[in-house]
Amino acid sequence: MSVTHGKMGLSLTQEILSHLGLANKTAAWGTLGTLRTFLSFSVDKDVQRLLKAIAGQGVDCIAILDVLTNRSREQRQLISRAFHERTQQDLLKSLQAALSGNLERIVLALLQPAAHLDARELRKALKGSGSAEDVALEILATRTPPQLRECLSVYKHNFQVDAAEDIKSETRGILRDLLLALAKGGREAYTGIIDYNLAAQDVQALKQAEGPSTERMWVLVFTQRSPEHLIRVLNQYQRDTGHELEKTVPAHFHGAACVALLSLALVIRNTPLYFADKLHQALQTLPCPASVVARMRLMITLERRMKEPPISEGLLVSPFSILVRLCSI
């Protein structure tokens, strides 16, 4: 099928922007998020609109984008089931047959259950080259315990192997230890009680764990302590040494291990800032297959992690900005 309006170029990008909830509007904090439950949701109307969008001579990409990117993941799953009940056809396969390129990839990610998307991306990161410290760590470090358990369960079901086995075979050194520890989901829960003694002990341990064969202490502290406790550890470390712990990491770790530890530190300090930074970097990346996949995954991840776009140092990022960039490449 052909695509309405021809190639996804500047004119279509402008048209997409005109449909966005944040376009040309001033919004109060608390109303900025665009990936949220659609209040006027009607599954029948959405199914009818999608059917119309993929029927006939051309494909109405704007209609497809307007429906799928303005509904929550739960609402999209309802649309998918209703589409199948009405047509006896799979919505995802129908859209894949009508679309191509980056738009097809986006639709695939939008319609997949979250755990399935995570499992697929985790597998690709572990089996690919040079992305375990980025994609795999992001998934294992930022998902809630229930989300992580579901992801790992889907991983085993779909690929007939535990994610831990792939981590062991595909990574090495401290990166392997970090990923294995995160995959176990053994991080302590915050009890509301501040343990100043343990914080002081962790700071001292990290200050002393700066030589060879001391990686285990870094893994233990970074993967087992609660985020609330770790923030106090990071702050106390800076008070004691006069510099952030992130300044110490590159002096003692290199390559993937360094990247993983720095990413974990940022996740612990400020998870929204971590995603904002990744979004900003992704949008600056020149078009290439790897960056396209990364940007698509970031958009979907942002949907789950934050109800509002991250704001940091004047950076306001709408999840749709990635969508527009993807569709215009």
From TrEMBL:
InterPro entries: Annexin, Annexin_repeat, Annexin_repeat_CS, Annexin_sf, ANX9
Origin: domain of life: Eukaryota
UniProt-recorded Gene Ontology molecular function terms: calcium ion binding; calcium-dependent phospholipid binding; phosphatidylserine binding
Pfam annotation, one family: Annexin
SMART domains to which the protein is assigned, alphabetical: ANX
Gene Ontology cellular component annotations, sorted alphabetically: cytoplasm; nucleus; plasma membrane; vesicle membrane
Keywords: Annexin, Calcium, Calcium/phospholipid-binding, Repeat
Keyword Calcium recorded: yes
Entry annotated with the keyword rRNA processing: no
PANTHER family membership: ANNEXIN, ANNEXIN A9
UniProt domain comment: A pair of annexin repeats may form one binding site for calcium and phospholipid.
Family: Belongs to the annexin family.
Entry protein name: Annexin
